[in-house]
## 1
Amino acid sequence: MEREPSDNPIVTEGLVRRFGAIEAVAGVDLSVGRGEIFGFLGPNGAGKSTMVRMLTTLLRPSAGRALVGGHDVVRDADAVRRSIGVALQDAAIDPLMTGRELLSLQAVLHGIDKTEGRRRGDELLETVGLTGAAGRRVGTYSGGMKRRLDLALALVHKPNILFLDEPTTGLDPNSRIALWDEVRVLNTHSGATVFLTTQYMEEADQLAGRIAIIDDGRIVAEGTPAELKSRVGDPTLRVVLQSDQDAVSAEAALLRLGEPVADSPGHVSIRLAGGASRVAAAARALEDAGIQIEGLELRSPTLDDVFHIATGRRLEGTAAEDAEPEEAESSAP
Amino acid sequence: MRQYAALSRRAVVNLLRQPTSVVPSLLFPLLFLALTSSAFDRSTALPGFPQVESFLQFVVATTIVQGALFGSIAAGSDMATDIEDGFFDRLVASPVARTSILVGRVMGSMVFGFMQAWLFFGITSLFGLNVRSGIIGMAAISLVSALLAGGIGAVSVAFALRTGSAEAVRGAFPLLFSFLFLSSAFFPRDLMNGWFKSVASLNPLSYMIEGLRSQVITGLDAGGLAAAAGVAFGILVVGTSAAGLALSRRLTANF
């Protein structure tokens, strides 16, 4: 579903940001359609936050251009600011103020009048389930509550375009799933375009209609999650052997069913040509060869496989570095 | 206008909800007041010392200036905290007028400086302070205190915008302290001599404190008031210009 670039709420052409000799974003072309949830997936330090900071007018691009809501982020920064809602990973919420006070401050910053601001604030507190905590100082909120308030703050002025920079980093699984639901509901109800950065492939997979994978400042893959995964090809069949000594013969028995994939001792993996319908054939082939197995696992391709094919590295595991701020240099003066 | 008011209100709320930043700026000047008015009370009998009822009456103007100086550091350290925490980015990513980010903090300091002066008058009146210029003089002194607090607030905000570090801003505290000591804050210039007198005579704070002091010990004195307000206004102009420059530098450094 291609649109005219000018029609799309977020368009970048050859966008570059350098910090000294480092190119944090190295020529990114993107086009995000209206009403889309667009996932920007990549490991820590890949350039996600730098990209968001350029699109939200916090950082000037070194080269290329970006249009947000049809406005140039450099020449027409104020118009961009009026049309976007922003929840930045590293933008703290004043711990001394209450949730309700912050919402009304945010309304004022966006030029919304007092009565409307209050009405909108109450409505949003209800939406994100913070009505009960509205009068409490933000300093007493849990991580999940802060993120939900942050989401509400980004929505005060009913923006058409919403930027969420790592909205669930550091959250426990339950809060993460709750926030995903909120983003989905919001996207369905308001029709807002959502640009979401994340280092969690599951998050991108669950939420985004379309994904761009960024690594080292460059887009290495782009498409719907299904498209991206289908590029990886067939699912992987993993055989758990009773004895590691059977590894060679097991691989030989399975050779006609698919290409072998490297695995750990005691296991044999192949890309199962023809997918799930060939599992029975694989089991038979192993039985015919007299190989004792403990189990069979069929795994569909993941976005991690997509990342692996594109970069030779794994995304998985990078999430362990949650606490590390991404691209500290991007927030330096 | 509502943006300016909302950000000023936030600045005041920030101050009032952080007792650790407000209490020292109230307590230290009062401690100094208590200490000096008991220790130096007899110095008022020295030949050449202005005609005063007590050292308390002599030194209360210093207390108000000291409170305004110390209290306003919070404007800068709060601004630096906003930068460190990213709240500053939140403001910058909204269509709010850039100047309101600055003016909000300066106005917050001014409100605080004004309220603080009245608080000091209230407390010292319990100990027998008599302000010769009466309520009008006290109002005038409070207004000058507000101007000074705004000015020092702006200077500390400029420092915060340049360094982006709350710790660096708080590190400037001893500098203000020395600045105050090298003036006629605790002793009349007429009784000083040598380099100390020369330095105190060059220090604009001397003229400000003497101008305010004159309202307390002699009565309404337009000349003194004009000198004090002039110094405070000068600091405000220099401070806001520096802060404005620092703000635009910070905004253009990234953008």
Note: DSSP finds eleven helices and no strands in chain B.
## 2
Amino acid sequence: MGQITLNKVSKSFGELEVIPPLDLEIKDGEFVVFVGPSGCGKSTLLRLIAGLEDVSGGEILIDGKDATDIPPAKRGLAMVFQSYALYPHMSVRKNIAFPLRMAGLDKAHQDKKVEEAARVLNLADYLERKPGQLSGGQRQRVAIGRAIVREPAAFLFDEPLSNLDAALRVGMRLEISELHKRLTTTMIYVTHDQVEAMTMADKIVVLRAGNIEQVGSPLELYRTPRNLFVAGFIGSPKMNFVSGPEAQKRDATTIGIRPEHTRVSTDTGDWPGVVGVSEHLGSDTFFHVKCDAFEEPLTVRAGGEVDLKYGDKVFLTPDSAHLHRFDREGLRLP
Amino acid sequence: MATKASRAAARLMIAPSVILLLGWMIVPLSMTLYFSFLRYNLIMPGDNPFVGWENYYWFVTDPSFKAAMVNTLLLVGGVLFITVVGGTLFALLLDQPMWGQGIIRIMVISPFFVMPTVSGLVWKNMFMNPVNGIFGHLAKGMGFEPIDFFSEIPLLSIIGIVSWQWLPFATLILLTALQSLDSEQLEASEMDGASWISRFWFIMLPHLARAITVVVLIQTIFLLSIFAEILVTTNGGPGTATTNLTYLIYVSSLLQFDVGMGSAGGVIAIILANIVAIFLMRMIGKNLDA
């Protein structure tokens, strides 16, 4: 079981309120991702759940029981840290066995569990090595192994992939998703990378300055962002925002249109403009188009084979079904 | 980058300092070696005949030599034990966030800046003196007989004074080592269910191992040659109770005016120090490689 409820949880460091009171419900078995720009309080929130920081107000319920004042070790949660926090003087085997040893499990039992975890994580050949002799991905797996053997109610991940290179990150992302499907344990995952959030989450919690901006499945957030912040944060490349006469024409203060929902044409369209820099990814091409009607250039996605050069005249047409309208406060209009 | 010409130039540039340092060491060393084989006593002027190993024989068979060796070992061992254990505890304390941290840290480190002679005299006259010392007053105030430290427990008193001097050094090195410990490791072990004692034993102490090695190595080298504290407090006495090897060499060459005997003692001290150094490097030098 791993159901976690935050009830009016808040955190202040001295005068500074990092997290104003917030409520959140995490269901058993869910993969929840906290995402937001750096300094938005997502790591603090995770540490509050872990018990590494004391809450300033409110309560944390784990499986319906009040865990607010329970020390971290007794909450039944396991955490994987950004730096992996492996114990450098212990072999991989001892690292993974450490929580079991602290729990006073007998040696035979420990060994069995460690072997089991090593098999699941492909670490069997490295058990006698020290963390310093492992690659980044392997260290990551040891850290996960140390979390698995405790059979926790929920896993907490604090930006676990940010120290890996891009290729390895994609691989580990898949491995963690696989692990979640296999273990079906609740996982809470903190990241600033919206791609990680979109690809892994059952439920995304978008945070800004300690406030929850929106909670929902990846596609919900993509399709119906609640406000300008979520709209700009979710999706890559970023959504284009346009204000002024074009927005007023549609009864909004700001309108948002994603690069993938804009058509490019060389002869007809709503907004004439000039092609600026283009980024060719092979499968797609992103054009930065300076339209006559707007100050800021718009980003547009086109097929990989579309051949437009710097300075070419083009016309853009937004797909009106996927147009997002926002009011003066930046909130979504229906 | 290092071409043949630049390497030659580099050697040429370094040469003066190397030659100076080498001379600084070689000249006194060879003179000591030379004197140690002569009958060379300032009380009996005249020619100084070559006597072979005679000086060494008399130095080693002197009953105070054995006492000096034992005292040296006890002094070094005792101070090392107190400073490493005490330094670790102090470092743990000072690592806690508290009010006035900066001032307290400076105050803890300050004994290290006091000259050995001064601290010896301060301890002797202001603390350990049975009549005027604070300890004597305290004992009397509580109705106990004051302890005459330097006649009742002379070696322990010296160990105490030297430990007081070196505790800051150990504390400083161990504190910086402790601060370099990744806080996520401590948090991870906390989540893993480790109690405070387990965290100290399994995470902090292994992390401190290297710093402790450094403390032990450096202190051993300095503690083998403790002299000023003994000279100003006990003069090696009562009897030979606080005479260490350094002090015995001083007694032979400067109190008994036997330069030959003193030199022989010096050579023995050099050899012993090197044996200890090799032993220490072998034993704990491994710690420094990793």
Note: Chain A has a mean pLDDT of 88.
